[in-house]
Amino acid sequence: MDSQRILRYADDVLGGPDEAERSRLAAMADVCDPTTTRVLDELRVAAGWRCLEVGAGGGSIAAWLADRVAGLSAAGEVVGDGTVEGEVVATDIDTRHLAELAAPQLTVLRHDITRDPLPGGRPFDLVHARFVLEHLREREAVLDRLRTWLKPGGVLVLESLAGFPVESSPNPAFREAMLGIEQVLAKTIGTDSTWARGFPEPLRSRGLVDVGMSVHLPTTGGGNASARCWTLTLNRLRPRIRDLRLASDAALDEALDRLADPSFFDVGFATAIAWGWAPG
Prior knowledge:
The chain is α/β, with parallel strands linked by helices. It has a single domain, classed as 3-Layer(aba) Sandwich (Rossmann fold). It has helices at residues 19-42, 60-69, 139-148, 172-188, 201-204, 225-243, 249-260; strands spanning 50-54, 87-92, 106-110, 124-130, 150-162, 209-216, 219-221, 265-267, 270-277.
């Protein structure tokens, strides 16, 4: 591994087109989508909205938004008179896992949030980013950009990994493995799993109003979706964890065994969620 090269998420650290990554994104969606959609529902995302989904991953939230802005219910039924259609722009630096998304009001766009211009040239009613900014060294500058992409009265929603529960794990091998994930991402791509602990201040300090936050702390274990997600993540990152000597092979093996054990339960990283509205 070239320790001098500045790596990004998709530089064979995480991301990529293979089936294991598709499975990891699907497991992540199983864990996180119910909370994400609940928050978006409580913020009253509605038919006719123009929405930006940043770092769309496997596309599950983009698909949910596409139904919502088109005035469709969770069952796919038309709500209202069916004449109001919004727009969803789903972006990522790697759109291969978004290829199967299809809806008249949905556009998939290869886009680098750190440098590419405002998608479509018009601001949005909603800008949503899940598990994106904490992985970017330029996160503060990117947040500045996202703020300017809101319409007056639009809402910005951020979801980020927060590492604070990991150190209190009562399971030493699981704790060592999860800290290995945290540290290898910090050392390779600059992930900051402490950044979201300051929510919602990054939104308040940029002039957003009616800010709020919540924390999702999913249970990991019993062969559930969270356990599958962390197993796939750990297997993907294991060579780098070993190269950087961030966890022992014995601890990694034991952690993987525990994640596969139906009787094992713990909590890993939290998801911190913050939102705020542009005045207007």
